[in-house]
Design a protein that fits this description.
The complex is a heterodimer. Chain A is built from 15 helices and two strands. Chain A is flat, with a radius of gyration of 30 Å. In chain A, a hairpin with a 7-residue loop joins strand 1 and strand 2. A two-stranded antiparallel ribbon of chain A has the order 1-2. By secondary structure, chain A is mainly α. By secondary structure, chain B is mainly alpha-helical. Helices cover 62% and strands 6% of the residues of chain B. In chain B, the strands form two sheets. In chain B, strands 2-1-3 form a three-stranded antiparallel sheet. The radius of gyration of chain B is 32 Å and the shape is extended. Classes of the chains: A mainly alpha, B mainly alpha. Chains A and B meet through helix 5, helix 7, helix 8, helix 9 and helix 10 of A and helix 1, helix 11, helix 12, helix 13 and helix 14 of B.
């Protein structure tokens, strides 16, 4: 759809409107701008906005949804659309020019347009959520039309078969996800928590100013980097020095590989959240404990940590939701075999890995093997959302306690 | 000195520690040591991670080249003799490969190197990509035909690997694509100065290459695709994010609707990135029919993903502007809107900019959603920013992190080096962006 003509016309109308409105404002006030309720400039601005916003909005709607009508008569006659946009712009321009009077409050009118834009921008967040939920609900309902939901949620077998007749049980995927997240948290929570305690209670200002940014670097590294690290370094290392000598398995990609690397990724997450929470514990509580003769570590263990516990639990839950939704590390580090096993050196797979593998293949989009990805996505979304809401609820409630 | 009789009561001196105090002090030291151990572990993980990537990937920036004279035989390249491009295009890369082989054999005889290899085996020293390079330069300048020109040609992946330590004489003996004799021949050529290893700009500019030729694979298309996506994100996420933050921070009435929006934004910030990929696939590609694997769709998905980050940091920046600024503006007759746009926003700009750059850096490293919208496709053409058919940013492209993923899925071990090299490139970009953000914060940060 050629847009250059309407855009040029809109620009021209805006420019013309800007000057016309100012001169018209001057003429209705008979050359005395003190009689005007708004400055001529404000009249100009109002005209420009009334010209541009509806027309540009129409273009935006067309750009987003125009391809839906690519077969209808609308798409085959671009003149209709171009003419429509130009007509809207012209109408807006003339309408706002016609409104110019001595007592017309152009500033307020222009600001209504701007406020409308601001409100529109802030509803995009809502639209995103609605889009996420709708897109997944729609395709998931298609999936459950072909595949029984009891089999999906309660079957322990995952073996997609692109000729049809697949077993698509989520349990092995959930097991892999939880197992990897558990290992990651078992690694990240003690390290992150002790790092946060040391940094907020023991470290000197200088140590803190060096170590804190370094830990935050870990948070800024993209997950694909962690994934590659798991694939080429951690995986072979664990296989050669742990799994093979101890007879646990031959696979470089394993639950342990993915779990450890994900643990490293979560360290800064846990530590910076717990750091905030520990710092929020009032100094008076520490002073009271120290004054009674407790050592610093006793104060931390018996006063600070119990006081901060709800917040720390919230932080751990947030980290868990991160771990469950993490994709690249498990895609590269955990393997692709759906398995229900306790051996951490065996390759297992997760919900996110299967979303990627089911949606990146060249398969018929309407088949249950592809649509299952949306059901997996919805399950993932619900789990992480639940964890997040619960965690934020705990963290918030805790923060208010001492403020 | 007076000796106190030992009455069996606990010692009262504070200088001599009793067992209980010793135990408590030991516990104290232990606890502190745990903290230090945790920090050391984290630092160690960071160091191992970075050094592993650098150790694996730095060699990707160097490449082995073979310098030979190639006789551009007019009989073979242009049978008509009139330098008609259409006729010359009929000579495929196979025809050029024969010329390269001839050139290499000449060079070996000229240097007086003895080898037991057959001509065909000798030709495997040269990359499969090299004939295409020569063909392109001949087609770009047909007058070259008939002359003998010196070309710097890519050596094959195995020879390149040999000089980077990836391939050894032992591993070559088991390898179907090369042999210890070939490596020895390469050594002899290197001694003659015909094989050189030097910095490789092609890694940053060339497009991806197929499975058999890791030596030719480059990041050009991926960097361009990432750049396009960052432009989309910048031009959409920044204005929308700032507008939304201004509304929520300055104008929104405290009611249920605003609450819903706020809770929504904080939840969106924690939604797994792959869910955004599903959204992009379902809405932008399947419903709105945007082009698959185009930077436009990628940019839109990343925009939605970055918005919460930008909104959260922008709101913090707006909040840190003291209310007295707003009151002063309102006091001299500015409207609420004027006070925000003329005074509050400029003062919050450094904070907003910093947040935006950090959001962009996050978007640049994101992989999972892009996999789902088809950016894993093998793309060799540089995508144009605008074409009549595909529209703005509508041509297929890949992105830096996706290219890394792509290369990890290839069989040839040469691609591991490429993937790590791509990671280094990605990390350098992120480092630059974060450094700019920190610089801006330091330079313009204002305390009230």
């Amino acid at each position: 759809m050629p847009l250059s003509l309407p855009l040029v016309v809109i620009l021209g109308l805006c420019l013309a409107g800007w000057f016309l409105a100012q001169s018209r404002a001057m003429s209705v006030s008979a050359g005395d701008r003190r009689k005007l309720a708004s400055l001529p400039r404000q009249h100009g601005l109002n005209t420009v906005l009334s010209t541009a916003i509806p027309a540009l909005g129409l273009i935006l709607v067309w750009m987003l949804f125009g391809r839906l009508f690519s077969d209808s008569w609308l798409a085959n006659s671009p003149l209709v659309f171009q003419g429509g946009v130009i007509a809207v712009a012209l109408a807006g321009c003339l309408w706002s020019l016609g409104r110019i009077r001595i007592d017309f409050r152009a500033r307020a009118a222009a600001e209504r347009w701007i406020k409308g834009l601001l409100i529109f921008a802030s509803t995009i967040a809502i639209l995103t959520t609605v889009g996420i939920v709708m897109s997944m609900l729609f395709e998931t309902s298609n999936f459950f039309r072909d595949y029984s939901w009891t089999d999906f949620f309660f079957s322990a077998e995952w073996s997609p078969n692109f000729r049809g007749d697949s077993a698509l049980g989520i349990l092995p995927l959930l097991w892999g996800t939880l197992y990897i997240s558990l290992i990651a948290l078992a690694f990240a929570v003690p390290i992150g928590l002790f790092a946060a305690i040391y940094l907020s209670e023991y470290a000197s200002v200088r140590v803190r100013s060096v170590v804190k940014p370094l830990i935050e670097i870990l948070a800024g590294i993209p997950t694909i980097v962690y994934g590659l690290f798991a694939l080429i370094t951690v995986g072979p290392f664990l296989r050669d020095y742990f799994a093979q000598p101890m007879g646990f398995g031959e696979s470089a990609s394993s639950v342990m590989t993915a779990g450890l690397v994900m643990g490293v990724m979560l360290i800064p997450f846990v530590s910076s959240l717990s750091d905030d929470i520990i710092n929020a514990v009032p100094q008076a509580m520490r002073d009271g404990s120290l004054g009674l003769g407790a050592t610093k570590s006793e104060t931390i263990r018996q006063v600070v940590i119990p006081a901060a516990l709800p917040g720390i639990v919230g932080a751990v839950l947030l980290a868990a939701s991160r771990a469950i939704g993490e994709t690249m590390i498990v895609v590269l580090g955990a393997g692709a075999a759906a398995r229900l096993s306790l051996n951490p050196f065996e390759a297992m797979t997760t919900v996110t890995v299967k979303i990627v593998s089911q949606l990146t293949g060249d398969t018929d989009f309407a088949s249950p093997e592809t649509l299952v990805a949306f059901a997996l996505g919805l399950t993932l979304f619900v789990i992480t959302l639940g964890l997040n809401v619960f965690a934020l609820f705990i963290v918030r409630r805790y923060r208010e306690q001492y403020e | 000195m007076t000796d106190f009789p030992n009455t069996g009561q606990p010692r009262q001196s504070l200088l001599n520690l009793d067992d209980r105090t010793k135990k408590r002090n030991a516990a104290e030291a232990r606890f502190k040591a745990y903290g230090i151990a945790a920090i050391v572990t984290a630092m160690l993980a960071l160091a191992i991670l970075l050094s592993s990537v650098v150790a694996n990937g730095s060699s990707a920036f160097r490449q082995t080249f073979i310098t030979i004279d190639v006789p551009l035989d007019a009989d073979k390249l242009d049978k008509s003799g009139v330098r008609d491009l259409d006729v010359m295009k009929k000579v495929t890369t196979i025809g050029y490969a024969k010329l390269l082989r001839e050139g290499l054999l000449n060079a070996i005889t000229d240097a007086g190197i003895d080898t037991s290899l057959s001509d065909k085996e000798i030709a495997t020293l040269i990359s499969k990509e090299a004939p295409a390079t020569v063909r392109n330069s001949v087609l770009a300048n047909p007058s070259l035909v008939g002359e003998t020109l010196t070309f710097d040609l890519l050596a094959s992946g195995r020879i390149d690997g040999y000089y980077k330590g990836r391939v050894t004489l032992e591993s070559a003996a088991l390898d179907g694509n090369t042999s210890p004799e070939a490596l020895m021949l390469a050594d002899a050529l290197k001694a003659e100065g015909l094989i050189t290893t030097r910095f490789n700009w092609n890694f940053l500019t060339a497009p991806d290459a197929s499975d058999q030729r890791p030596e030719a694979a480059g990041l050009g298309v991926a960097i361009l695709g990432s750049l396009y996506m960052m432009l989309v994100v910048l031009f959409l996420a920044l204005p929308i994010g700032v507008a939304a933050s201004i509304y929520l921070e300055e104008f929104a009435p405290k009611n249920r609707w605003t609450d819903v929006i706020e809770v929504n934004i904080s939840n969106l910030a924690a939604v797994p990135s792959i869910v955004y990929g599903i959204l992009g696939l379902a809405i932008f590609i399947n419903f709105m029919h945007f082009n698959q694997s185009s930077p436009l769709v990628g940019g839109l998905v990343l925009t939605l993903m970055t918005l919460p980050t930008i909104i959260i940091s922008t709101r913090a920046a707006l909040k840190s502007v003291p209310p007295s600024i707003r009151d002063a503006a309102l006091g001299v007759g500015a409207s609420k809107m004027q006070s925000v746009f003329h005074h509050v926003l400029p003062l919050a700009a450094p904070g907003i900019l910093t947040g935006t750059i950090i959001g962009l850096a996050q978007a640049l490293g994101e992989t999972a959603p892009l996999l789902l919208i088809g950016m894993v496709a093998f793309v060799r053409e540089y995508p144009a920013a605008y074409t009549e058919n595909a529209g703005l940013f509508g041509e297929a492209a890949t992105a830096l992190p996706v290219q890394v993923y792509n290369w990890t899925q290839r069989a040839d071990p040469g691609f591991v080096e490429r993937a790590s090299g791509a990671i280094i490139t990605l990390l350098v970009f992120l480092l630059i962006m974060n450094a700019v953000a920190i610089f801006l914060r330091r330079k313009f940060e204002r305390r009230w």
